[in-house]
Amino acid sequence: MGAPVFTVRDLNVYYGTLRALYDVSLDIAPEEITAFIGPSGCGKSSLLRCFNRMNDLIESARVEGTLLYHGVDLYDPSIDPVAVRRRIGMVFQKPNPFPKSIYDNVAYGPRLLGRRSELDELVESSLRRAGLWGEVSDRLSSSALGLSGGQQQRLCIARAVAVDPDVLLMDEPCSALDPIATGLIEELMTEMKARYTIIIVTHNMQQAARVSDRTAFFTVEADDATGQRRGKLIEFDDTAAIFATPSDGRTEAYVTGRFG
Questions:
Q1: Most buried residue, 4, 65, 200, 234, by most Cβ within 10 Å?
Q2: The whole model's pTM is what?
């Protein structure tokens, strides 16, 4: 593994007085797919949103601990969250294309950043990277809302990569898609990791086993002091080890379907 893209140490996420995630420490390697798995409520998505400061948009949210991006403290007061989100893109659970044309969806981010030249080339290259160009090249002026669910999700990926990010965060990107569309997105992720660092939250353990290089398993436990339920990282290792020879019995129980 090269120098980590993200270094996380003793990270805690709070919503008001509730500590949703407890003392997480891990490193995210470059040009790999890292999967976060675990039962509902274990803090997977809360952690994912820390990487591009999406939790800043939740009034009650608070993040404590250390989160470095290429050695830079993401939560330093001098850091602009908007600049963070340009470098660290996000694809959500449900496809969310803008009610605009296919072309304008992809061009939206670059235009917002002031780019006016060579947009045609950028839109085409972004759609190609998302595996969608061949399906939409003859209808770029059509509404993005007319695409199928799987096509909309790939369009959202094209929109994310159009601003040339370093990292792609994917929060259950296939949960609303059929098996064929899911397969296309998984193939796309595998191709894209040569260019991007990818972190995916998924409830689909088979998906994590198929596409990821490393997997983090989280669970939910009760806080000894308050009794409140909180998420905790149990194990983080190569995906093959997590699914074949996990070191913690709780991980084994989850991946074999006996818990969660």
A1: 200
A2: 0.92
